[in-house]
Amino acid sequence: MLLDALAGVLTSIVIFATVSLSTNSVQQQATDPAANHKLVAAIVANLRRLYVDRATGNKLADALLAHDKNGDYQSFGTGPGLAVRINGDIQTAARALRLPRGLFVADVVYSERPLPTGPPPPMTAEMRERNRAALLQQNCRIETIETLPPNVGYVKLNGFPDATACRETIARNGIAEQRQRARRRLAR
Questions:
Q1: Residue 96 pLDDT more than 90?
Q2: How far apart are CA 40 and CA 15, in angstroms?
């Protein structure tokens, strides 16, 4: 029953840790068990709160807390080594819970980049032009345009680009023309 509930469901537990580039703070983080405990506590809270099956999420969280209590994470800094170790412990706990191999359980991700603290900056003219050039190079993310029998239009998009940047590409690929033909057929 538990396996049926988990089948096809992807649950991602993502924790980002920030590391300052100064050498002193990196060394301090490497020897600070309180920082590791705080990070493990955040991962445990996310497992308990976000995991699709609460009972399994609680058991995975309890396993991580047991490792933390035993001091298994004290030798790691709050860097990629800790993320790898925690991911390994999550997979070990999942196998102990008899979750099938290959089933996505959870993932802890490490990044040295700081998390954004607000909305992105407004787009400048230079940023708009770079975005427009990239979209045009990718054919405005239009992969396929076909007319299938019986006169059905098929457009495969790999995203939804800015319409103002792709007006010429859409016209060149005949999407506008196909849309007009379809409207005429519907009007009949």
A1: yes
A2: 9
**Number of other CB atoms surrounding residue 56 within 10 Å:** 21
Residue type, 120: P
Give 42's contacts (C-beta < 8 A, 6+ positions apart).
15
* Of 87, 83, 84, 74, the residue nearest 17 (C-alpha): 83
Say if residues 147 and 154 touch (Cβ distance below 8 Å). Answer: yes
CA distances from 102 to 17, 34, 91, 99, 187 (A): 26, 33, 10, 9, 52
3-state secondary structure string, the chain? Answer: CHHHHHCCCCCCCCCCCCCCCCHHHHHHHHCCHHHHHHHHHHHHHHHHHHCCCHHHHHHHHHHHHHHHHCCCCCCCCCCHHHHHHHHHHHHHHHHHCCCCCCCCCCCCCCCCCCCCCCCCCCCCHHHHHHHHHHHHHCHHHEEEEEEECCCEEEEEECCCCCCCCCHHHHHHCCHHHHHHHHHHHHHC
Q: Report the pLDDT value the prediction gives residue 13, as an integer from 0 to 100.
A: 44
Between 156 and 48, name the one with better pLDDT: 48
pTM of the model: 0.52
Cα angle: 93, vertex 99, 102; to 5 degrees: 100
Both tokens of residue 1?
């029953």
